[in-house]
Design goal:
Length: 712
C-alpha cells in the first residue's frame, strides 16, 4: 500500500508510459505500469501496483487488431467501444461493497458515464478519449475501467504520448449493455458498456441475450419526418422479422418510455432455461402482466406502454408479501378529477429499508429521501412517506395500478432531490407573453455566463458546475471529486490532474453551449421539485407546501407567491400562480410536514392543479417553482386560463395486440413523430405575431403537441 505523499507524486504529473503499445494491438489492453486507484475513507487514496502477479488482469473487452479509424484519431467514447469483442460475463456472484468504498456503480461508472458526457466537448476542443475498455481480475472478481487519452496538441496518439488511467473497483449487479445501431447501409456495434439495467434483464441474468437497438441516418440523426418507401423497405422488416447477428436470431421485444423518445428499443435472442423453458418475446410479455379481456390488450400504443414499465431503468429493492401491499382510494373532486393521480404511500420503516437496500449513504446532517419513483408489478408512479402507516407496507391507489400482475418486487426507478431551476426557450416565450420584460432574461443570462467562466478558479466551484448542469448525473463522478476537494493535498493533485482538468474544461464549454443554443439559464432560488399530494387536506385551493432539505442539514421553506409550471410550456395557461405556505404551524399537516424536496399539491378546487400544467400528474412529474426573488413571477391579471385539451385518438384492433404489432407501432412512431417540429413551429409563430402564444394558430399547435405526446 502506497502512502499519501507517494500517491500525490504519482497523481500530479501526466503519466505517459513509454511501454504503451500502439493503437490496434491487443497488447494495448494492459499498460504494464498503470496503477489501480481506489478511494477509502476518510479521503485516503490507495494505489496498488498492478505488477503484482496476484493482481494479473485478463482482457474483458479489448480493442481488436486492425481496427478501422473512420472517425479520425479523436473518436467519441461510444465510437471507441464500437468494435470491441467481449468475453462472457463471469458467473461468480458479486461481492458486497465495504461501507466506505466507491463501487463500480459509483466511481468507475461515474468516470465511464462522465466520458460519455464530456467526449463530445473534447472532440470540439481538439482533445479526446483515445481508448476505453474493461478488464476483470480472475482472483478478486474486480472490474477495471481503463481510460487511455492522448495529449493536448498532439494530432496522433502514439506509444510515447498516451496517458493510461485504470480505476479498479468491486463489481456489483451492473450489467454490460450491448447496442446495435442500424443505418441504411450499416449495422454499427457498440459496447459492452456499463449502464443501468431493468427488472427483465435482472430476472433472467442473461444480459448478453438482450440488446438495445436504434435506427438512424448515416450521420446519426433520427428518422423523424421521414416516412418514404425507401426508409420503410430498409427498416420495417427489422421490427417485423428481426435480424441475424453473431450466430443468433434477434427479435423485437419492447421499449422503455425514455427509449421511445430517443428512438431505441430492446431486442432479444430466444433462449432456454435450465428446465428447457423457451424464453421468447411473447413469453416475457405474458410474465409481465395479464391483459386478457381488457381494452388495453386491443390498443397497441397502450399495451406497449404498459409493457414498457418493466423496462424502465431501476434498481432492485425488496420483494414484498401480499399483506404488505395495501389498497387505498384515490382522492377525487365531485366532477371526477383526480387529485392523487399516480401517487401512493409508503411507511417510514419500509422507506428506511429501501434506502438501506439501495446503498444510499447519507451525511451526518443529511435527511433520507421521502419520495420514491417505483415499479411494482403492474403498478407505477411515486410513493410518499406517510408517518401514520405502521409496519413495512405500501399503499397503492387505483390510478397507479395499470394492469394485473403477480410480480411483487419493489423496483426503485429513482429518488428525488431539489433540482435547480432553469429557463428554456419555450418557457421564456411563455413568460414574455405573460408580461415579463426581456431585460430580466438578459440580466440572468449575463450573471450565469460570468459565473460559469469564473468557475475554474477553484476546484470546489469547478466541481459544482457539472453537478448543477447534470453532467454524469446518476453517478459518483462528482462525488469523488468532492471527496478529493476536501483536503488541501488531494485538492491540488486532483486539480492538476489532466483527466480532471479536461472534464472541468468540458463542463464550462457544455454549460455555455446550453445557454447559447437552448437558453438553459440557471435560476438561483428556484427549484425543480417532484409533485405529491396533501393527504391531510390542510392546504387550501392554490396553496402548496415545499420544504427544501440540503446535504448540510439546512432547511428552507418556500413562502409567498410562486409561479409554477411544467415542461413543455406550449399553452398560455401552462403557468399558474400559487401561494407557498412556508413552515406549517404545530398540529397542522402532520402527515406532510416531514416531506422534503418535493412540492405538495392541494386536494381542493374544481380541478387538480397538476392537470392544469401541461396535463401533468403525480406519477413522477417534476414542476418548476419560480420565486418572487427571480423576477419571473407574472402579474395575476396576466395569467391565462389553463388548457382543456381534447383526448388524443387511439387505434384499436379487433384482436389482441401481438409483439409484432408493437414493433410496427414503434417503427411508425419514430418515423412519423412530429413533436419537435410542432414545438419549433409554434415558437416561430409566437415570435412572428403580436399575440404570441395567444394567436389562434399557436393554440392549435399546442393541441397538436399534446396529441403527439399522448401517443407515447
Amino acid at each position: 500500500m502506497l502512502e499519501l505523499p507517494e500517491v500525490l507524486d504519482l497523481l500530479s504529473p501526466e503519466r505517459s508510459p513509454a511501454r504503451t503499445p500502439p493503437l490496434g494491438l491487443l497488447g494495448a489492453v494492459l499498460p504494464q505500469d498503470a496503477l489501480d486507484l481506489t478511494l477509502s475513507p476518510p479521503g485516503r487514496l490507495d494505489l496498488v501496483d498492478s505488477g503484482d502477479e496476484e493482481q494479473a488482469f485478463q482482457p474483458f473487452a479489448a480493442p481488436p487488431a486492425n481496427e478501422p479509424d473512420e472517425m479520425g484519431r479523436r473518436p467519441f467514447l461510444h465510437r471507441a467501444n464500437t468494435s470491441y469483442q467481449s468475453s462472457p460475463l463471469p458467473a461468480s456472484p458479486s461481492p458486497n461493497l465495504d461501507d466506505g468504498s466507491f463501487g463500480v456503480r459509483s466511481l468507475a461508472f461515474g468516470v465511464f458515464t462522465g466520458l460519455s458526457s464530456f467526449s463530445a466537448e473534447w472532440e470540439r476542443e481538439g482533445k479526446g478519449v483515445d481508448r476505453v475498455w474493461l478488464e476483470t481480475s480472475a482472483k478478486e472478481k474486480k472490474t477495471a475501467v481503463v481510460v487511455r487519452m492522448w495529449e493536448e496538441g498532439s494530432p496522433f496518439s502514439t506509444a510515447t504520448n498516451a496517458t493510461s488511467i485504470r480505476i479498479t473497483v468491486e463489481a456489483e449487479e451492473t450489467q454490460l449493455v450491448r447496442q446495435v445501431t442500424f443505418t441504411a447501409t450499416r449495422a454499427l456495434l457498440f459496447g459492452p458498456y456499463l449502464g443501468d439495467t431493468n427488472s427483465i434483464v435482472r430476472a433472467y441474468a442473461r444480459p448478453e441475450l438482450f440488446v438495445s437497438v436504434a435506427v438512424r441516418h448515416e450521420d446519426g440523426s433520427s428518422l423523424r419526418d421521414r416516412d418514404d418507401s425507401l426508409i420503410a423497405s430498409r427498416f420495417s422488416p427489422l421490427f417485423r422479422d428481426g435480424f441475424e447477428l453473431g450466430g443468433r436470431s434477434w427479435r423485437f421485444l419492447a421499449w422503455s418510455s425514455s427509449g421511445l423518445k430517443s428512438s431505441s428499443c430492446f431486442f432479444m435472442s430466444p433462449f432456454r432455461l435450465d428446465d428447457e423453458t423457451l424464453i421468447t418475446p411473447t413469453f416475457i410479455h405474458r410474465t409481465i402482466g395479464d391483459f386478457t379481456g381488457s381494452e388495453t390488450a386491443l390498443i397497441p400504443a397502450k399495451y406497449m406502454a404498459r409493457i414498457a414499465q418493466a423496462f424502465s431503468s431501476s434498481k432492485p429493492s425488496l420483494t414484498l408479501r401480499p399483506d404488505q401491499m395495501l389498497s387505498i382510494e384515490d382522492i377525487t373532486a365531485p366532477d371526477g378529477s383526480c387529485f392523487s393521480d399516480g401517487v401512493g404511500l409508503i411507511s417510514p420503516s419500509l422507506a428506511n429499508d429501501v434506502v438501506e437496500k439501495l446503498g444510499i449513504k447519507l451525511g451526518k446532517e443529511e435527511r433520507p429521501p421521502t419520495c420514491f419513483q417505483f415499479r411494482l408489478g403492474g403498478a407505477k408512479g411515486t410513493l410518499q412517506v406517510d408517518p401514520t402507516l405502521e409496519g413495512k407496507v405500501v399503499a397503492l391507489r387505483p390510478s397507479q395500478v395499470k394492469f394485473r400482475s403477480t410480480l411483487t418486487s419493489l423496483e426503485i426507478a429513482g429518488t428525488f432531490e431539489a433540482g435547480p431551476g432553469y429557463l428554456n426557450r419555450p418557457l421564456i416565450t411563455l413568460l414574455e407573453n405573460l408580461g415579463i420584460p426581456a431585460d430580466v432574461f438578459l440580466k440572468l443570462q449575463a450573471k450565469a455566463t460570468a459565473k460559469i467562466r469564473k468557475s475554474r478558479a477553484s476546484l470546489p466551484s469547478a466541481v459544482k458546475l457539472p453537478r448543477d448542469w447534470s453532467l454524469a448525473s446518476g453517478t459518483r463522478f462528482v462525488s469523488a471529486l468532492n471527496l478529493l476537494a476536501k483536503d488541501q493535498a488531494t485538492r491540488d493533485a486532483a486539480f492538476a490532474n489532466p483527466f480532471v482538468a479536461r472534464c472541468l474544461d468540458a463542463s464550462v464549454v457544455h454549460a455555455l453551449r446550453d445557454i447559447k443554443y437552448l437558453a438553459r439559464i440557471p435560476l438561483p432560488g428556484c427549484y425543480n421539485l417532484v409533485g405529491v399530494v396533501d393527504v391531510d387536506g390542510c392546504l387550501a385551493q392554490d396553496e402548496i407546501y415545499a420544504r427544501i432539505s440540503r446535504p448540510d442539514g439546512s432547511t428552507e421553506y418556500l413562502q409567498g407567491t410562486i409561479a409554477i409550471s411544467r415542461s413543455p410550456t406550449n399553452h398560455p395557461g401552462d403557468c399558474r400562480l400559487v401561494r407557498a405556505v412556508g413552515k406549517l404551524p404545530k398540529g397542522a399537516g402532520e402527515r406532510i410536514r416531514g416531506l422534503t424536496n418535493c412540492v405538495v399539491f392541494p386536494v381542493h378546487g374544481p380541478r387538480s392543479l397538476p392537470s392544469m400544467l401541461a396535463g401533468g400528474d403525480l406519477d413522477g412529474d417534476v414542476y418548476l417553482l419560480l420565486t418572487e426573488a427571480s423576477g419571473l413571477v407574472p402579474s395575476p391579471d396576466r395569467i391565462a386560463e389553463p388548457a382543456a385539451y381534447d383526448a388524443a385518438p387511439t387505434v384499436k384492433l379487433d384482436r389482441e395486440v401481438s409483439v409484432e404489432d408493437g414493433g410496427e407501432f414503434f417503427f411508425k412512431y419514430i418515423t412519423q413523430d412530429r413533436t419537435g417540429l410542432v414545438a419549433t413551429r409554434q415558437l416561430l409563430l409566437a415570435d412572428s405575431h403580436a399575440e404570441g402564444l395567444f394567436h389562434p394558430d399557436c393554440l392549435k399547435l399546442a393541441q397538436l403537441h399534446f396529441t403527439a405526446r399522448q401517443r407515447r
